[in-house]
Design goal:
The structure holds 2 protein chains of 2 kinds. Chain A is α+β, with helices and mostly antiparallel strands. Chain A has helices at residues 3-8, 11-78, 104-109, 149-199, 215-264, 269-300, 313-330, 349-366, 402-408, 427-437; strands at residues 84-89, 94-97, 115-120, 126-136, 140-147, 309-312, 334-339, 344-347, 377-385, 388-395, 441-446, 451-458. In chain B, the strands form 3 sheets. Chain B has a 5-stranded parallel beta sheet, sandwiched between helices. A 4-stranded antiparallel beta sheet of chain B has the order 6-7-8-9, covered by helices on one side. A 3-stranded antiparallel beta sheet of chain B has the order 10-12-11. Classes of the chains: A alpha+beta, B alpha/beta. Chains A and B meet through α6, α7 and α8 of A and α4 and α8 of B.
Chain lengths: 464, 226
């Protein structure tokens, strides 16, 4: 595209062109209207003046006859800025007057209406005048007129002013377009440049926000928020890749080595059976990990599990409590549930169930100082609080140091002391991802002693 | 049992067929949706195992077509899509059960057998009996050797499900799905604890244990004398 074509295709150019043409059209309409009105007004003035002169002169004619008329005309001719006068006999011979020559057929036609004609002054100047001719009863023609040169000059001035205004307007339009378009193009170009830089890998780049709070700022703010989210997601991904590599490769290597070892040994059906059994268990663990990862990825991508419905968090919490009660009992943990009915939220029953189950699972597994702790308790509560459904799982175990609480919700993070307990290290990440998807939150706090994990969701107050 | 496996991946299909034959069933294979629909229309199968994504005609539309034509053969849908709404879509199209990939073969066989049994003997019995263990669904009572056993409501449902499928392996996920109505993976095997608690109530103190653990697969209740 040529440079001109590029300019012509800019929004700024198009807007300026529309603005200019509309403005010019209005200006033309105004100018025509003004000229027309001024013209009419001036013509009216001239006609009125001529009419009044005729009235005066006809009075002179009536009272003083031809001589009186001639005197009156001569007297009027001497006044400064006099009108044009011409008194002739029936044959067009001049009796008195300040017009020396005029076309004779004009007189014969005895124009009733004021008419523009060319005439010659006594000084021999060619000028234009508005004249009217009256045939007097004594077989004479009286012509009265006003010189139009002044008026024409006025018209010229108006025309000149209009043309000048139009040129000025066009000039100003082009200049303002230039500045507007330069400003717009500059900002658009800066957005394009920044975007390209970000695309080429510098994810920390942000668009400039000028603080003028205009559309560009709003656009930049939205794009920055989007970049923020992308950076966060990619950051999470990078970290996850490392962790996935570790947590998936380790069992895969184990499986591989184990089978390799069995193949190298002399065949022993019993031993092979055991190894295969162990391999299936490892594979199942891998599948569990993989499923959890997929679920988290889907939750974090915001697509979730599609179906959201009205779910009673209290009922789900009771289901989970019921499901875990025997496990808790076996582990020597007293599991209690205190749920306020009904506590409806919008979400997915399966995922909410899984989230609460993960919290309870964690509390039972890690919520004890040691296996001899006779007073281990896990208390689940569900209640509504300020339009929020609050689901809390509290244990009275060792808790998590404040510094590490933020870390445990990350994928695959398992605190040193729990490395030996079975688990994928994904439980809390899944809960956190689920909470974010449902516009809720997961917080971990000190229960003094122990840990309290709290899920908060907006209450579903609607009937749907 | 005659089972039709509709699966486009040759290796998976022949592996499934071999496993089903080893479990004592007859398995036919179809590699696309059109062929699968044609075979299901003409032959009488006990269960269809249908992959969700198939060439020519996808699994859901194939099942939907069979249902519209009035076939009530039980269908197990296999899918790599394991999301809750995928499951719902699968069941809505007429699938009777849904199994997400990757699955274990014992899980698949257990589900196929339960589906086939459900068709042959509709769930109308009021009393389930396994050896001397009797579960009365109307009065909600369980007796063994004439002695009443007191069960919690959930334990009752657990036993009811196991006894309805007596002689068949039921997996942990099947129990979680059918007794608790949840489909997620619990991090710890909570089901095992429920089953062992039930076992202590129905088998403890009796000479012949009825509730067996099937290693690597799940649980089965059956009369060892038969």
């Amino acid at each position: 595209m040529t440079r001109l074509g590029r300019i012509a295709s800019t929004t700024a150019f198009k807007l300026s062109a529309i603005y200019l043409s509309v403005f010019t059209a209005f200006a033309i309409v105004f100018a025509v209207a003004i000229t027309y009105a001024a013209d009419r007004f001036l013509n009216q003035q001239v006609n009125d003046a001529i009419a009044s002169e005729f009235l005066d002169l006809s009075q002179e004619w009536n009272s003083g006859g031809a001589f009186g008329l001639v005197d009156a005309i001569e007297e009027r001719i001497r006044r400064p800025g006099a009108s044009l006068y011409m008194l002739t006999d029936i044959n067009g011979r001049l009796v008195v007057g300040n017009v020396t020559s005029i076309s004779s057929d004009l007189l014969s036609r005895a124009v009733r209406e004021p008419t523009a004609v060319d005439y010659e002054t006594p000084q021999g100047e060619q000028r234009v005048a508005m004249v009217q001719v009256v045939r007097l009863t004594g077989e004479m023609f009286l012509l009265v007129g006003r010189d139009m040169t002044e008026r024409q000059r006025f018209e010229d001035v108006v025309r000149y002013a209009l043309v000048a205004a139009a040129v000025l307007l066009l000039g100003l339009g082009i200049v303002s377009w230039f500045f507007v378009s330069r400003r717009v193009l500059k900002r658009v170009d800066s957005v394009a440049v920044t975007t390209r830089r970000i695309m080429s890998g510098d994810l920390s780049g942000r668009l400039e926000v000028t603080g003028s709070n205009d559309e560009f700022d709003r656009l930049a703010e939205s794009l920055n928020a989007m970049l923020e989210r992308i950076e966060l997601l990619l950051g999470g991904l990078a970290e996850v890749t490392d962790n996935v590599a570790h947590d998936l490769k380790t069992p895969l290597t184990r499986i591989r080595n184990r089978i390799e070892a069995v193949l190298a040994e002399p065949a022993d059906a019993e031993r092979q059976r055991d190894v295969m059994q162990a391999t299936i268990e490892d594979a199942d663990q891998l599948i569990t990990t993989f499923n959890a990862l997929l679920t988290i990825a889907r939750l974090e991508a915001g697509s979730g599990d599609g179906a959201t419905e009205r779910v009673d968090a209290a009922a789900v919490a009771r289901d989970v409590a019921e499901l875990y009660e025997p496990l808790a009992e076996e582990a020597g943990v007293a599991l209690s549930v205190d749920a306020e009915d009904p506590t409806p939220i919008r979400g997915n029953r399966e995922l909410l169930g899984q989230a609460i189950a993960n919290l309870v699972d964690n509390a039972i597994k890690h919520g004890r100082s040691d296996t001899t702790d006779a007073d281990a308790r896990v208390a689940m509560t569900v209640r509504s609080e300020n339009n929020d459904a609050v689901i809390a799982v509290r244990d009275n175990g060792p808790g998590i140091p404040a510094a590490e609480r933020g870390r445990v919700v990350q994928r695959f993070v398992r605190l040193e002391k729990s490395r030996t307990t079975p688990g994928t290290g994904l439980g809390l990440s899944l809960v956190a991802a689920f909470a974010r998807l449902g516009q809720g939150s997961l917080t971990l706090d000190d229960a003094d002693p122990g840990l309290v994990a709290t899920l908060r969701f907006p209450l579903d107050s609607g009937d749907g | 049992m005659r089972i039709l496996v509709v699966e486009d991946d040759q290796e998976t299909a022949s592996y499934l067929a071999r496993a089903l034959k080893e479990a004592g069933h007859v398995a036919d294979l179809a590699s696309d949706g059109e062929a699968g629909a044609a075979m299901a229309e003409t032959d009488d199968y006990d269960v269809l195992v249908v992959d969700r994504m198939l060439p020519k005609r996808d699994g859901l539309s194939m099942v939907d077509g069979l249902r519209k034509a009035g076939h009530d053969v039980p269908v197990l849908i296999l899918s790599a899509l394991g999301r809750v709404d995928d499951r719902i879509a699968g069941l809505r199209a007429g699938g009777d059960d849904y199994l997400a990939k990757p699955y274990s073969i014992s899980e698949l066989i257990a589900r196929v057998e339960v589906l086939a049994r459900r068709r042959r003997s509709p769930d109308s019995e009021a009393v389930y009996t396994v050896s001397d263990l009797v579960l009365d669904r109307l009065s909600h009572t369980v007796t063994r050797g004439g002695e009443e056993i007191v069960l919690q409501p959930r334990e009752f449902r657990l036993l009811e499900y196991l006894m309805r499928n007596a002689g068949k392996v039921v997996t942990r996920t099947m129990l979680l799905e059918n007794v608790w109505d949840y489909h997620f993976d619990p991090q710890t095997n909570v089901i095992d604890v429920h089953v062992s608690r039930l076992r202590s109530k129905i088998d403890k103190g009796f000479e012949t244990p009825l509730l067996r653990t099937v290693r690597g697969a799940g649980y089965m209740i059956r009369d060892p004398a038969r």
